[in-house]
Amino acid sequence: MSGTPCQGGLDDGALTVAADVHPGAATVGVGHNGPMLVDVPKLSGARVTVMGLGLFGAGVGVTKFLCRSGARVTVTDLADAHQLRESVAALDGWPVDLHLGGHREEDFTGADLVVVSPGVPDESPWPALPHALETELNLFVKLCPARTVYGITGSNGKSTTTTLIGEILARGPRRVWVGGNLGVSLLDHLDEIGPDDIVVLELSSFQLQRLAPLRWSPQVSVVTNITPNHLDRHGTMARYVEAKQTVVSHQREGDVRVLNADDPFAAEFARDFAGDHAGHLGVDPAGGAPSIRWFGVNAPADATDGTRIGDEVIEHAGHRLDVRGRRLPGRFQLHNLAAATAATADAFPGWAQAATEVMVSFPGVEHRLEFVAEIDGVAYYDDSIATTPERTLAALDTLPGPLVILLGGYDKGLPFDALGARVAERCRAAVVFGQTAGALTAAIGGGSHPDENAGPVDVHRATSFEDAVASARALARPGDTVLLSPACASYGWFRNFTERGRRFKELVRG
To answer: Which residues are listed for ATP binding in this entry (predicted)?
Structure first.
């Protein structure tokens, strides 16, 4: 979870939890009309195991928070100390027992509390526990004093939309903290967040699934879009949608839902959930329904609840936000810009000008159609965030050809038929790798390139990621674009899409 305070920009800042915070007593937490009391685990003196330190330090923030709260902390991870050297260095001097290179049963059975990564499935044998489980985000939600929390989820566009919302709100009078599924811990920054601050959280389906027992939803919920994803974890599309619905299912009167008018699943998030829950972190709801703001091509432009996408313009309640000259490539990005507009509209005087300035100048987020380099007349783009076919399809519709695309990775059980057909239409060559190499090769088939003189698409199967990048470089000609947009998760070869994207950039520039 990343913690980034914004005051006129997304700059790093420091938040720390006071050493005398012992959450065994009633503690201030997120509320609608002021702070409210919630119960959190007793941490002072408790034996707590953190499952997963993380290659990029995902578990560092919660570990420091637990130490400051007086807990006796053990951190366990399947990766060894060398693989985790940066994260281990970040905990140098902290009173932590590190058990790395594998999990030990006693670290779980002997713990009073286990803090797990939201990515650990319920059916995982580690931990098979009879007692309390927590996640870092759940702890933050229970302790966060801010009265206004934005929660952004969706299958694609979460990080970009979250960052845009943070940037726009930071132009207003209130301090803004951006976090969630992004990087460094908000728990590690807790004591500077005030009741009048705004917290903006990116929320994954895994995080929302773990949040569901809290019966909590943010005051402003944004759903960018819903397409099949993580079906290897959730099992069915219905269960995936159900996990995502946590972002709206416990909202109350006065809250806001921002929904995509062009998304066929929007109705699943617009319905009344009033009968599905008993309250907000144990507090009875006041009654009434949240308001809904729609964004998209089919959204009404002349109503206060509509943000419509036009031709390089975004319209909201009489405001026309001209986004010509924007740095974010691709028409699909207009939906992210419109979602951010709908979420921040009327948040403060001058919001429309602030939104326009942010949207035109915003350079994008790393690993999201990120330009890497031009070498020997070939342009290289990193779209490692593309872990679904839909995301890769959007990239294919954004970049000009001729294209050499790198595809493949962990098999999440998603269909590749539409992607294969589009690759056959748009790409001169494809390099496939990982578990899905065979399925992708079959989906692409012997499809012909639109240039009748180019012949069928050249599909090369790589044995490693290094081989894949080298093959793409060899296949590319001056004027081509090499695009890493894998359409699959990174697991198996990489810890996450970030590591995959950084390795791609190293190999390209190396």
So the answer is: 154-160
Amino acid making up residue 328: L
| Eight-class DSSP state of 172 | S
Tokens of 183: 């990087």
Same domain, 482 and 427: yes
**In this structure, are 354 and 385 located in the same domain?**
no
Q: What is the pLDDT of residues 344-395, one digit of tens each?
A: 999 999 999 999 999 999 988 899 889 999 999 999 999 999 998 988 998 9
497 has pLDDT over 80:
yes
pLDDT tens-place string over residues 130-154: 456 788 999 999 999 999 999 999 9
**Residue-wise pLDDT tens digits, 191-246:** 899 999 999 999 988 899 889 888 999 999 999 999 876 656 666 888 889 889 99
Domain end, chosen from 361, 396, 412, is at 361
pLDDT interval class at 314 (50, 70, 90): very high
Q: Is residue 282 part of a domain?
A: yes
CA R_g for the chain: 23
Are 231 and 346 within 8 A, CB to CB?
A: no
The answer on pLDDT for 34 being more than 50 is no
d(CA 32, CA 505): 44
Do 132 and 111 contact (CB within 8 A), yes or no?
no
Q: 298 and 390 in one domain?
A: no
386 burial (CB, 10 Å; 0-12 / 13-18 / 19+) is: buried
Task: Please give the Cα distance from 183 to 327 (Å, whole number).
Answer: 23
Number of domains the chain is built from: 3
33 burial type by CB count under 10 A (0-12 exposed, 13-18 middle, 19+ buried):
exposed
CA distance 21 to 35: 16
CATH number at residue 120: 3.40.50.720
Q: Rounded to the nearest 5°, which phi and psi values hold at 83?
A: -60, -35
Are residue 105 and residue 184 in the same domain, yes or no?
no
Query: Distance (Å, rounded) from C-alpha 310 to C-alpha 320?
Result: 10
CB atoms within 10 A of CB 460: 19
**Binding site: residue ranges?**
154-160
| Buried b or exposed e, range 332-361, using 16+ CB within 10 angstroms | bbbbbbbbbbbbbbebeeebbebbbebbbe
* Residue 297: other Cβ atoms inside 10 A: 13
Structure tokens at 140: 């933050």
DSSP structure class, residue 177: E
Cα gap 131→108, rounded to integer Å:
10
Q: Which residues span the domain enclosing 480?
A: 370-509
What residue numbers does the annotated binding site for ATP cover? 154-160
